[in-house]
Design goal:
alpha/beta, 8-stranded parallel beta barrel
Length: 360
């Protein structure tokens, strides 16, 4: 296994005018005024500039970049034209989002809070091109060791944690039936564990092994589909965890989150599972700390510009993407608004870094 496959020799972020990457051009007050007075009834895609089209063509064909969800009015001028409500974008936005040259995947984060049905998945699949792939988060009833109150606090142990039956019936089967070949990854994001469970890691690994081995294969209906496990406790990152994933034919979801070690420190998991695809979710900028989602929301909304460009993470992620796709493996990478402030602009920044590496 060559070390440079996973970007150990990371290129230094280019010196340049970061401010130029931070904010999209602001429309004049005259151009803004009609949009504020009246929202359009139809969501239309923004016209892509030639540089964006050329960037998309230059990317590896095995790379699919995208965002976490798509229902953000602040993406006006970046993904769609005009002013639209969250509800309108929920209904019409996906088809427009999928016309953006760089958006070839999207993450269903809402499925973490409430399972989606096969008919819901099928409706979404009908709105995107044949080459589009979805990332689906498994419901928290399966992936959270605790039953939580509305404020997120754990109330009691969750008896359904890592339940093979629920994982199959509430996640895998509906996603396969509804998305078919457009299913890219099913992500089991294991929420932070209470200390009492962290002390019993061998037992948890056995439960995880049992669940993963009980899941039906994805390949017959979704040839590109992969089961991926994302964690929120670094205690999971051991050779024994990698062995469980490898035995079950699953992979590790590279989770870029302040609760986890930096990207470079998670690379041993990818090496242990090589060869295999890359599944990555860039969730939260470390400046906000491990519990900083609310802080990020307050600062970043309406998600129309970059507030904290993380050029080091972009370069490191691009190196991993280039190494893995360059050796014939797929890469699914989804990015949250909480990564830098505006997911579409971060996607473009990562794409530019990948193309730079290919040109060397």
């Amino acid at each position: 296994m060559q070390d440079d496959l996973f970007g150990d020799a990371l290129p230094k972020p280019p010196a340049g005018d970061v401010a130029a990457q931070v904010s999209p051009p602001k429309p004049t007050p005259e151009a803004e005024a009609p949009a504020r007075r009246k929202r359009s009834g139809v969501v239309a895609p923004v016209a892509a500039d030639e540089a964006l089209k050329a960037l998309a063509v230059a990317l590896p064909t095995r790379l699919r970049l995208g965002t976490s969800s798509w229902t953000y009015p602040g993406w006006k001028g970046l993904v769609w034209e005009g002013e639209h409500s969250d509800a309108q974008l929920s209904k019409q936005g996906l088809a427009v989002y999928a016309q953006h040259p760089l958006m070839r995947t999207v993450s269903f984060d809402r499925s973490f809070y409430r399972p989606l049905t096969a008919s819901q998945f099928e409706r979404y699949a009908s709105q995107v091109p044949d080459d589009f792939r979805f990332v689906v988060k498994a419901p928290s009833v399966v992936t959270d060791a605790l039953v939580r109150s509305e404020d997120g606090r754990g109330r009691q142990p969750n008896p359904a944690f890592l339940s093979p039956e629920l994982a199959r019936s509430e996640c895998v089967e509906p996603a396969l039936q509804g998305l078919g070949h457009k299913l890219g990854a099913l992500v089991f994001q294991l929420s932070p564990l209470p200390l009492a469970q962290l002390d019993r890691m061998p037992l948890l690994l056995e439960r995880l092994r049992t669940m993963l081995r009980a899941l039906p294969p994805l390949a017959p209906m979704a040839p590109d589909g992969v089961i991926a496990v994302e964690v929120r406790d670094p205690e999971w990152l051991t050779p024994d965890f990698a062995a469980v994933l490898r035995e079950a034919g699953a992979t590790y979801c590279l989770g870029l989150h302040a609760k986890m070690p930096p990207l470079q420190d998670q690379l041993p998991m990818l090496r242990a599972l090589w060869p295999g695809p890359l599944v990555c979710r860039w969730n939260l900028n470390p400046v906000h700390g491990p519990y900083g989602y609310e802080d990020a929301e307050r600062l970043y909304e309406p998600y129309d510009r970059l507030h904290h460009p993380d050029l080091e993470t972009r370069a490191a992620l691009a190196a991993v993407i280039a190494g893995i796709t360059g050796r014939g493996q797929n890469a699914l990478v989804t990015i949250s608004n909480h990564a830098e402030g505006c997911a579409p602009l971060t996607v473009r920044g990562v794409a530019e870094e990948v193309v730079k590496l290919g040109a060397r």
